[in-house]
Amino acid sequence: MITAKNLTKAYGDQEIITNVNFKIGGSKKIGLVGKNGCGKSTLFKVLNGIEDASAGNLEIQGEVFGYIPQEFSFPDELVGEYLEKQLDSVWDFYKIEAFASKLRFNNFDPYQKINSMSEGQKMRIKLIEALLKDPTTLFIDEPTNHLDIEGIMWFESYVKHLDKNIVMISHDRSFLNHTVDEIWEIDKKQIFRFVGDYDFYKEEKLKLINKWDQEYVLFLKKKAQLETLLENVRKIKDGKKRGSAVESVKKRIVREIEENKKEKYESKKVKDIEFKSEVHLSKLMLRFDGVSKSYGEKEIFKDLNFELRGKEKVWLYGPNGAGKSTIVKIVMGLEKPTLGNVTLGNNINIGYFSQVQSNLVSENTLLEEFIEKTGIYFGKAFGYLSKFLFDKDSVQKKIWQLSPGERARFAFAIFAYKDYDLLILDEPDNHLDIETKEVIEKSLSEFNGTLLLVSHDRYFVEMVGVDKVLNLSDGGIKSFERF
Asked: pTM of the entire structure?
């Protein structure tokens, strides 16, 4: 059992969570949600002893923890060497192979360099490492960021049948709906518990916000009434009665207003984004004619034929390694096809959002990078970035200081500055919190141009409203109408 009593975590004067209380036990599956920066990963670090709490008590009885962070860091070692170090005895190596089999790690090779593996494979290595400790509680930070759709569906089933406490930070709403018993949200520096899946939480949170709004209105009404009453009793002519009445009202103000203060609930979120396009419905935007791609003797895909027309919203999906990002890079001219022809429509503006933001200069401040990438006037940059929740202090941060969520939001701010006829988005939803995803979903669903979307987030894809699906697998592509 894990019991937190009045747990507080602060960095200097800035409190992240304040006097929170909770218990974790009974093989519960818990989804931890909240805006980027609210303290989810920080709470994980406190619970796992990586950081100390600032105040309060944390009692851990009979628990063994496993922890899988959001971003992986491995030494330059072979898989077998790395995992062998996690064993009590080298004779227990069979346990590693057994877990690899359970995790459907079919291409597990103990002699492969870890840093040559895909992110999905690295995630499985971290999971094997955690399971070797025989943990009673697993903490997993953003597991679906590293898995393709088949991997996510496998992991959903695995989590549901694992007889352990599992606490997961996730922004994948479909994944949460399929795996958790409870949703815990960090909001207003507190933890709010909702017994149910993500959709249930969403409904209940709206009810809670309405309740807070009503309480705030009543609070303002009570405050105004007592202030008016105080003004009136001060007009009493009898000095003795006036003094007694004034004192009585002041005590009520302290008790009912100052000690029971209500604040208006405000949810800071990215402002609405609008991409403008006037592309015609029948206009050819993109065509692949017999396109093949190989790296040396390794064939990625062969003889791909498809086309995109104006206003189509297309979802490109398939397993990791199938070549989705390669297709995107070929479209953008970053790579050349081995065979075949790629045709782009005439006079169209193409916007490309890459899942890896390697084009951001890490030593630049946000303000410097934004002006450099967009050409925006200095005075307007502050106002534009504030729409994406970057205030005058945060725009002075260096790029390398950003969290993964902040980095993704900043990259999208740069991307959204211009208008496009064809949007090509490669995993745009990775690392974004749910509220930001919802804003982007709305903008893409209302976009009047053509969209080619690569994403493993089924909820995100559904809300965008795609009307064509391209399934890339086994070196070929199949087209389906509607999702």
From this structure: 0.82
